[in-house]
Design brief:
Layout lengths: L1 H46 L6 H8 L3 H7 L15 E6 L1 H7 L3 H8 L3 E4 L2 H11 L8 H14 L3 E6 L2 H14 L4 E5 L9 H14 L3 E5 L4 H9 L7 E4 L3 H6 L7 H5 L4 H7 L1 H23 L4
Parallel strand pairs: 1-2, 1-6, 3-4, 3-5, 5-6
Pfam family, one: Glyco_tran_WecG
Organism: Flavivirga algicola
Protein name: WecB/TagA/CpsF family glycosyltransferase
């Protein structure tokens, strides 16, 4: 038994060393890329100043990590949210924070959310480092589960907008078994980088015809948040939630990381191993850039 333990410990230490070394190297490279890219971006803004509206410049300059953590991040219990009032709910993690710095509409969507959930260990870490405040990570799957319980108890109607017909069919079947008091409907929009006016009208009409209390939008970030921000005035549901991959998690077409990894703050690791091509950028580019932003915020260098 002792021999097996030593072998396991050695291989584990080796793996940890490789991961840490690779991570440090990635941080150094990405900081250099960030500095170069930032300087090029500033030149572009100065060059085209007249072509950029004042809102965009204000928000790009105002995307301060301290401000987001202090004034926008939800840090209470989900039970404290009044779901009987109009409520737009979004999530933020280190990757979406970095993406929003170069996407004014996405940035606007996040900042205009009534509830902005800390869906990432990096956001939890930032709160602790910047304000010594301990907050709980709340993933899209958590708000989804909470709202389903709320809807079942109160006989609410829910609508799923996004994903494939197959995924939506699996969701509907599972809901009828687990939450029999919920009325559910769904619509699978066309797979396009951008929706046409006709596409958007059809999506809005399908939602409003069913007249749900809760609308779950799953079209991946930042597409889903931007769509909600642009069309929220036309949507009738009381609660609108952008939850992306949760559609697949709940349907079972994609398996969420186990509680073991979630509790360690490493939910991203099994997903990265399974989908490296899709997720490498958010872990090896966005994470170091977020840590760089966090360091600047801590040192008051923003």
């Amino acid at each position: 038994m002792h021999l097996h333990y030593e072998v396991y410990s050695y291989s584990y230490s080796d793996a940890v060393f490789v991961i840490i070394a690779f991570f440090i190297l990635t941080v150094v490279i990405d900081i250099l890329l960030f500095v170069i890219g930032h300087q090029l971006y500033r030149k572009q803004v100065d060059k085209n100043h007249k072509n950029i509206n004042s809102w965009s410049i204000t928000y790009i300059k105002g995307l301060d990590l301290k401000n987001i953590i202090r004034n926008h991040i939800f840090s209470s219990n989900l039970s404290e949210i009044d779901f009987n009032k109009r409520c737009i709910i979004s999530t933020i993690n280190p990757h979406s924070y970095c993406v929003s710095k170069k996407d004014p509409l996405f940035q606007k969507a996040l900042m205009n959310s009534d509830v902005l959930l800390p869906d990432g260990s990096g956001i939890v870490l930032a709160s602790k480092i910047l304000f010594k405040k301990k907050i709980k990570k709340i993933a899209g799957a958590d708000i989804h589960a909470h709202l389903l319980k709320h809807a079942d108890i109160n006989n609410k109607k829910v609508f799923y907008l996004g994903a494939s017909e197959k995924t939506l069919g699996l969701i509907t079947k599972k809901l009828k078994n687990e939450y029999p008091n919920i009325q559910v409907s769904s619509y699978s929009p066309p797979y396009k980088p951008e929706f046409s006016g006709e596409d958007t009208k059809r999506m809005i009409d399908r939602v409003n015809e069913f007249n749900p209390d809760i609308l779950f939008v799953g079209m991946t970030a930042p597409k889903q948040e931007k769509w909600v921000e642009t069309n929220k005035k036309e949507l009738n549901p009381t609660v609108v939630v952008s939850i992306g991959a949760v559609f697949d998690f709940y349907a079972g077409t994609v398996k969420r990381s186990s509680p073991f990894w979630i509790n360690l703050g490493l939910e991203w690791l099994p997903r990265l191993i399974k989908e490296p091509k899709r997720l490498w950028r958010r872990n090896f580019i966005s994470t170091p850039l977020f840590l760089f932003s966090l360091s600047k915020a801590k040192l008051n260098l923003n």
